[in-house]
Amino acid sequence: MIRRALLLVLSSLLLCAGAGQAQAAGYRYWSFWDRDGDHWVYATQGPSTARPSDGDVQGFRFAVSEDSGDAARPRGTADFTTICAKTPAQDGKKRVALLLDFGTTTDAPSGETPPAPRTACAQVSPDATTAEALATVAKPLRYDTNALLCAISGYPEKGCGEQVSNQQKPTAEKKNTSEDGPSLGLVAGIAVVVALGGAAVWQVRRRA
Q: What integer is the mean pLDDT of 42-48?
């Protein structure tokens, strides 16, 4: 009887562990970033509302990410001077340096190959948004009905922020909490199962 109770506890523990690992990997989408010194910072506004200043550096990265907290950053460290070196300043215009990172083959939709990352210098009116600057150097752009940016330079051809299966892991530079150890929910679940198992064993011994 005691052995049977212990087997039930062990089975429950395995079920809890499996449930913790069966979460969806995330979503495939274009993330938007601002360059702050030597670091990429996730933008607080969308490209359709952000209005960069002359000399700003902004980036876009296509990847599979769970959320903004673990989104993969654009790969590259080129600064404004480097990106806009061949675009002379003009009166009444601002220059915005853009880094376009189309991601990896792992993150690409089925049947598509990501273009190589590239930079571009957009020269636009002083009040132009990032989306307007992007449109001058990376057409065609594609948006969904909610104004979510779906494609840059026609990539990807289809899809927009779709959820991917848990068989494809996010390509994030920041570690997911699951990599550092079991989640709190999993630990709590195991603790409850252990407590129930202990009670079951005690009942068996008591009856014996």
A: 96
